[in-house]
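For reproducibility, we list the full input for the flavin-adenine dinucleotide complex.
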Amino acid sequence: MVDRDPLPSWGRGRVTLLGDGAHLMYPIGANGASQAILDAAVLAAELAAPGDTPAALRRYEAARRPATTAIVHANRDMDDAERAIAVGRDENKAGAIAGITRNYRAVVEQRHGIN
Ligand SMILES: Cc1cc2nc3c(=O)[nH]c(=O)nc-3n(C[C@H](O)[C@H](O)[C@H](O)COP(=O)(O)OP(=O)(O)OC[C@H]3O[C@@H](n4cnc5c(N)ncnc54)[C@H](O)[C@@H]3O)c2cc1C
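The corresponding predicted structure, in tokenized form, follows.
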């Protein structure tokens, strides 16, 4: 249960990061491992493409860093919102939680082009 601010970059030259090393996030969205797998898929595709390794790593980072940054923030927002409901007097807690989950899914699915 460790959360860190998104990094401004993941590496330079022939060095990069992947998974929790790149984008540690609260597991509240159940997304850390799945994002690490998506990192690996994009990284493999970019390394297999023609061109040099540093350029492939920069394309990988350009594809994955904005997406995972948005999910780190969405996890925090969901955590904050669920805690507020837990201590509040909201009569419709189930409805409020469903709304929070809907908003979270919208962020994740938008980042991955899922409709
Ligand atoms: C309580 C909890 C629940 C979670 N639930 C979910 C979930 O439902 N869905 C989901 O998608 N994600 C979930 N996650 C997040 C998920 O576990 C992580 O995002 C994921 O494991 C990250 O994978 P990784 O390969 O980047 O890092 P890790 O899985 O941490 O792998 C890193 C590996 O490197 C090894 N290592 C470290 N230092 C060295 C060294 N010097 N030399 C050699 N090896 C080293 C470690 O032993 C480890 O095996 C959860 C996390 C927690 C804590």
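The chain has four helices and no strands. The chain has one domain: 20-111. Both points were considered when choosing residues for closer inspection.
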